[in-house]
Amino acid sequence: MAKIYGQANRVIVWLGEAADNSDQALEDIRVTAEGEFTNSLNNEKSQKAILKLLKRPWFRRIWVLQEVAAARRVLIMCGLAEINGYTFYSGFNKLKLSYGAHPGLQGLIRSVTYVIRGAIFRPKYATSSLGGVSLGICLIWHEL
């Protein structure tokens, strides 16, 4: 599988249909990544939408780490909204989310976004590895 994902032009992450303001959540992450901060990012509705997006099943599936760890380009889609993987990583890292009601979520999402970020550093022509990241390391990150 790593070879297939590593040779793909891009890997599309499908988070599912639009729901719970997921379009706005992706837009808020993009805006944060690009430094275009707005008041909407500080409100409870925006935070709730982003947290709901991050709680989707895709982020909890262990094999997704293998998919994105081998990818050279990642596109994240939810409904009709889409965001470049690196922009998603960058925006997520700049957000100041309140994880109080979701104690394990921050570490889980951080490990997935770290692997997504690595896509821009992978060679144009893939090898058979997971982009230099072993599946064992991915499993450890996922458990943190």
What does it look like?
The radius of gyration is 15 Å and the shape is globular. The longest helix is centred in the C-terminal third of the chain and has 13 residues, at 105-117. The protein is built from 7 helices and 3 strands, in the order αβαααββααα. With 144 residues, the protein is mainly α. The protein has one domain. Strand 2 (74-78) and strand 3 (81-84) form a beta hairpin. The chain has a 3-stranded mixed β-sheet. 31% of the residues are buried.
Which features characterize this protein?
mainly alpha, globular, 144 residues, 7 helices
Please give the structural blueprint.
Blueprint: H1 2-7, E1 11-14, H2 22-33, H3 44-54, H4 63-70, E2 74-78, E3 81-84, H5 85-94, H6 105-117, H7 135-143
Parallel strand pairs: 1-2
Antiparallel strand pairs: 2-3
Helix pairs in contact: 2-3, 2-5, 5-6, 6-7
Question: Rg, please?
Answer: 15 Å
What string gives the helices and strands in order?
HEHHHEEHHH
Query: Largest beta sheet, briefly?
Result: 3 strands, mixed
Range of strand content: 5-15%
Question: Could you list the spans in which at least 5 consecutive residues all have pLDDT below 50?
Answer: 126-131
Tally of helical runs: 7
Rounded to the nearest angstrom, the distance between the terminal CA atoms is 24 Å
Which structural class fits the helix and strand makeup?
Answer: mainly alpha
Count of distinct strands:
3
Helix share of residues? 40-55%
Globally, the shape reads: globular
Average pLDDT reading:
80
Strand order of the largest sheet: 1-2-3
Number of discrete domains: 1
